[in-house]
Amino acid sequence: MIEILNTDELARARATGALVGDILHALKQRAEVGVNLLDLDRWTREMIEDAGAESCYVDYAPSFGRGPFGHYVCTAVNDAVLHGMPHDYRLADGDLLTLDLAVTLRGVSADAAISFVVGEAAAPDDLAMIAATERALAAGIAAARPGARIGDLSHAIGSVLDDAGYPINLEFGGHGIGSTMHQDPHVANDGRPGRGYKLRPGLLLALEPWVMADTDELRTDDDGWTLRSATGCRTAHSEHTIAITEDGAEILTLPTRAG
Known about the structure:
Elements: H1 7-30, H2 37-50, E1 54-55, E2 74-77, E3 80-82, E4 96-105, E5 108-117, H3 124-142, H4 150-163, E6 174-176, E7 183-187, E8 204-207, E9 210-212, E10 218-220, E11 227-229, E12 235-237, E13 240-245, E14 248-251
Antiparallel strand pairs: 1-4, 2-4, 3-11, 4-5, 6-7, 6-8, 8-13, 9-12, 10-11, 13-14
């Protein structure tokens, strides 16, 4: 299913996106050395409920997972990259943490992810990898405009990741979003320009470049959800929900708070 949102729905999408951005911003501020991942999940639940919103994750049960996810935010640490299930772990100085969040507010969903290093012991290679995913995300957004093809966005994202020297996994990528979290079209993190669905104003897309430092192979934890690099290498993931407008793309999931 591909949804094209009307003016009222786009206004609601902006509100949902701002909520996602603000929650991620608040969680990043709280993600200090010694903080437990389960506390991050609890705080996320409180912020979602206080806003009158609903989690897209707690009852999420796709074919690739093991039953409902049962938590409110994905917390991927170090070699974990996608669908990181919160568990009893206290953050350490130098951990590379990815937070991935999707919520629905007034019938419209938004999805975003950030990666950052906890504490002061940031390895240069970790910072470079995070920056590469952020540049790739910016390139994908810059390519998004009415009349462009999905392949144009995929090619823009993949070119940045490839130039930075990272292997690219095509199993998981970006996606359409609207009244539900995951919709068509799929947006791979590499592809051929000029191919795929033609973008139209009112379309929402969640673009999410992610990489692993030295492999494109994943392994799944015993929890049935958390995906890690097959070699144990570090990982990074950046994501925004955007709306296609008459003259380009509008990022919906930026935080409204400074700092």
